[in-house]
């Protein structure tokens, strides 16, 4: 009976964690570039009741959280008409960097392409992180910066080329958008602010910046990738979690009633 109580407690804890995951998904249903999380369970150790017989006699001791994974399927696209809003069509992540960091430090990945241009011509995220690209003249990935004294506007084409336009109509390729395409996106660590931190589980080569043209993907300008959360699925999972929580609590209640009957035998 005590085993059933502890098993019920472990089940309640697991379904509470499931509700936490579902609640976070629903709260981010309109978050640009958000990727939903899913949770899986596994059983705990089993206690051997007897070593004899043809088959082992075991009683389980409850369940535990096996994994909480991020689903990186693409979300739906929303047209905004804003030229600095970029949506990635295919695999990969935009590479952004903390403006106070130097070298390759402070670099993160994101699918949220709601970028803006600062007064000094830098393409940045809503938090002020620099968006990285390869200079057309060559060199390592660097913050995309538009010389507003020379170019009065710019655009980004499907291959990720940042093209500056002069007042006389002449166009010049200034940067090639830098992206990262880790082998295991689920291994990325959520950093907050729709940013991901590279880990050894996601890619053995680190962020490894590359161009859009070499990554089998394309860029849509004037569009944003929305969250991939499906409310219908989340509410269904919420019902399952609620009923599972109730069933485990009923196990504890029933075990308590049986223990009460045992205590009453003394009367």
Helix content: 10-25%
Q: Based on helices, strands and strand pairing, what is the structural class? A: alpha+beta
Contiguous runs where pLDDT drops below 50 for at least 5 residues: none
Write the H/E string, N to C.
HEEEEEEEEEEEEEEEEEEEEH
Shape designation: elongated
**Tally of discrete structural domains:** 2
Tally of helical segments:
2
Distance between the termini: 21 Å
What value does the Rg take, in angstroms?
26 Å
Beta fraction: 25-35%
What value does the average pLDDT take?
92
Number of strands: 20
Main beta-sheet annotation: 8 strands, antiparallel
Q: What multimeric state do the chains show? A: single chain
Family: Belongs to the flagella basal body rod proteins family.
Pfam families: Flg_bb_rod, Flg_bbr_C, LlgE_F_G_D1
Function: A flexible structure which links the flagellar filament to the drive apparatus in the basal body.
Keywords: Bacterial flagellum, Cell projection, Cilium, Flagellum
